[in-house]
Design brief:
This is DUF1223 domain-containing protein. InterPro entries: DUF1223, Thioredoxin-like_sf. It holds the Pfam family DUF1223. By secondary structure, this protein is of the alpha+beta class. It has one domain: Sandwich (Immunoglobulin-like), CATH 2.60.40. It is about 25% helix and about 35% strand. It contains four helices and eleven strands; from the N terminus they run αβαβαββαβββββββ. The strands form three sheets. A four-stranded mixed beta sheet has the order 2-1-3-4, sandwiched between helices. Helix 2 links the parallel strand 1 (about 45-50) and strand 2. About 30% of the residues are buried.
Length: about 260
């Protein structure tokens, strides 16, 4: 009787020792120190050029922006914002808006840069440099096109009817404190400039932002509408671009749809 009880007891004691040893060698990680794995999505490179038809240094940057878009059509999202502070020297840029000057000022405040300048290129809302610097631009494109994004945005049911563009959107990933920036982009326009620093020149501008709106991402999906401004002509090629923008102005996703 004694042997039958003793053998199982030793076996139980041995198993207990093994369990205690395993618990001892397994590191204990406090809950607040455990790594939280976040979802990531395919990379995007959003290039925002702040430019003006009144700035003699800007045309090379406009050309460079378009070159980057054509070289990386799936990854690069090109936006050209025409600012209004060059208008005072005699030529009023027809695409310029004070709200774009404010947008640039907000970026430079983030970058702790003292003032606005043209041409200025901003990459994914995270950093800036002189927009005509080709070496810098393609170095940054190569870097950002290999970094995954925190969000993904999808545009569906995009329809242009009369003077409006209707669309539906959905966003994947964390949307807390983020906005959806919707942008209407004019593919190209040629302008004969008669005054200012570029007087007597014919400028070909591309990727021109002609309308923009923001939608709070209180939900991951919804509907939106953009008005088509009068400056758009019937034969102009347009693109609708949607960006997910964090409260610190970082851009975390992008999508685009060409309009017929």
């Amino acid at each position: 009787m004694f042997k039958k009880i003793l053998i199982p007891s030793f076996a139980f004691f041995g198993i207990s020792l093994i369990a205690l040893y395993a618990a001892a060698v397994e590191p204990v990680v406090p809950n607040d120190k455990k790594e939280v794995l976040e979802e990531t999505y395919e990379p995007v490179v959003v290039l925002e050029l702040f430019t003006s038809q009144g700035c003699s240094s800007c045309p090379p940057a406009d050309v460079l922006l378009n070159k980057a878009k054509k070289q990386f059509p799936e990854t690069v999202f090109a936006l050209s914002y025409h600012v209004d502070y060059w208008n005072y020297i005699g030529w009023k840029d027809p695409f310029s808006k004070s709200v774009y000057t404010k947008k640039q000022r907000d970026y430079n405040r983030k970058f702790r840069y003292s003032s606005n300048y043209t041409p200025e290129m901003v990459v994914n809302g995270r950093e800036h440099f002189v927009g005509s610097n080709a070496s810098k631009l393609f170095t940054k494109v190569d870097a950002y096109k290999n970094r995954n994004s925190a969000n993904k945005v999808l545009l569906t049911n995009v329809k242009q009817s009369g003077g409006t563009i209707d669309f539906e959107y959905s966003v994947l990933g964390d949307v807390d404190t983020k906005l959806l920036r919707t942008v209407l982009v004019l593919d190209e326009r040629t302008t004969s400039v008669t005054r200012g620093e570029n007087r007597n020149r014919t400028l070909k501008n591309s990727n021109i932002v002609v309308a923009e709106d923001y939608i709070p991402l209180s939900a991951r999906e919804g509907k939106g509408v953009l008005s088509v401004p009068e400056i758009v002509r019937g034969n102009d090629k347009l693109t609708l671009i949607a960006l997910v923008e964090a409260d610190n102005l970082d851009i975390t996703a992008a999508a685009k749809v060409g309009l017929d």
